[in-house]
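A.,

Following up on our hallway conversation. Structure tokens first:
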């Protein structure tokens, strides 16, 4: 344990095991930073001198060379002040929480869309009980159009628009949650590409549905 030994008055350094734990933690943070997109990285409190090393690690595809660059990046990060590393940790934790909340909302929206397409008016009535400001007629028409698209094996434009409107409907009540448990007004909501990768949940599910419909 670091600090002054009360008996000898000498400075005590960290034990080897503690140093190894801290080195592994910094290495894990380095991997997280390299995995970020350029837009996400720009929002992180990362010192300018680390950015070229992060981008270089992202560029390298060879497994051994990539690991070597990650180790070099972690070494440079260990030279940073504790306050800098703490700010990076906090930012990564916040990003992870936001992404998990957004993904949970996406799954909830997907579940409501599927219920509306399967149960129609019964599910719509339940949805309106939870969200009385929702556009009943607009949602009902989207459900009908989506079912017609599915029946005719057409591109699921109405189903995607239904998903979009449901997401807006469900996302708004999440924003003013007290105590910071949910998204707050002014917080940035991750777009589909950042939260879910290049292909969104609704597009994946709808493409799978279309493929099932085309099978004999």
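Then the amino acids I'd put at each of the 216 positions:
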């Amino acid at each position: 344990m670091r600090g002054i030994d009360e008996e000898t008055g000498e400075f005590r350094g960290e034990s080897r095991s503690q140093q190894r734990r801290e080195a592994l933690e910094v290495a894990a943070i380095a991997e997280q930073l390299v995995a970020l997109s350029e837009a996400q990285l720009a929002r992180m409190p990362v010192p300018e001198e680390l950015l070229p090393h992060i981008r270089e690690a992202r560029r390298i595809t060879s497994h051994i060379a990539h690991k070597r660059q990650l180790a070099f990046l972690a070494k440079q990060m260990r030279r940073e002040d504790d306050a800098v590393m703490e700010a990076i940790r906090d930012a990564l934790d916040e990003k992870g929480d936001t992404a998990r909340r957004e993904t949970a909302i996406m799954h909830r929206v997907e579940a409501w869309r599927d219920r509306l397409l399967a149960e129609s008016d019964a599910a719509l009535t339940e949805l309106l009980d939870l969200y009385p400001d929702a556009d009943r007629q607009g949602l009902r028409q989207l459900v009908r159009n989506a079912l017609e698209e599915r029946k005719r094996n057409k591109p699921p434009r109405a189903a995607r628009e239904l998903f979009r409107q449901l997401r807006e409907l469900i996302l708004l009540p999440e924003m003013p949650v007290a105590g910071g448990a949910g998204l707050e007004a002014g917080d940035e909501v991750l777009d589909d590409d950042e939260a879910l990768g290049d292909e969104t949940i609704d597009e994946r599910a709808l493409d799978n549905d279309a493929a099932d419909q085309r099978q004999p």
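The chain is about 70% helix and 0% strand. Curious whether your intuition agrees with the design.

B.
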